[in-house]
């Protein structure tokens, strides 16, 4: 991994948590291997998870009816997205590997991370139609999920009380 650029998108409120420790170890180990590591600590950044009109700088393409997906796509093309979004897009673009570090909340990612994905991975930047999934603009990026469950491995199997974790992580993967 020497010389590679790594982005860790970290979504936990407490630096002393298991997630915080996993992030810290990843930064230390990857740096030791010669990687350049950038961390987007979403809680420390007070990252805005809500996709709103404020994400578009300037005029809307349709001021009569606000459609976030359409407006974000048009704003991306015009380079008129809010700076917090474009800053994160730049980090993703520059990274060879993106690691998502988070706790599992109600069988999904924390809202702040979901909001990061909603706002940062917009049409035009991460995908187009057609041109998503394996044909998306980030298809050559490596990504890794590092998450904690607060339960045992047996709980997240096909016969476990919580069900097979592969199914509820499918959209994220």
From TrEMBL:
Gene Ontology cellular-component annotations: cytosol
EC number of this enzyme: 1.10.5.1
InterPro entries for this protein: Flavodoxin_fold (IPR003680), Flavoprotein-like_sf (IPR029039), NAD(P)H_dehydrogenase_qn (IPR051545)
Compartments where found: Cytoplasm
Family: Belongs to the NAD(P)H dehydrogenase (quinone) family.
Function: The enzyme apparently serves as a quinone reductase in connection with conjugation reactions of hydroquinones involved in detoxification pathways as well as in biosynthetic processes such as the vitamin K-dependent gamma-carboxylation of glutamate residues in prothrombin synthesis.
PANTHER family: NAD P H OXIDOREDUCTASE-RELATED (PTHR10204), RIBOSYLDIHYDRONICOTINAMIDE DEHYDROGENASE [QUINONE] (PTHR10204:SF33)
Protein name from the UniProt record: Ribosyldihydronicotinamide dehydrogenase [quinone]
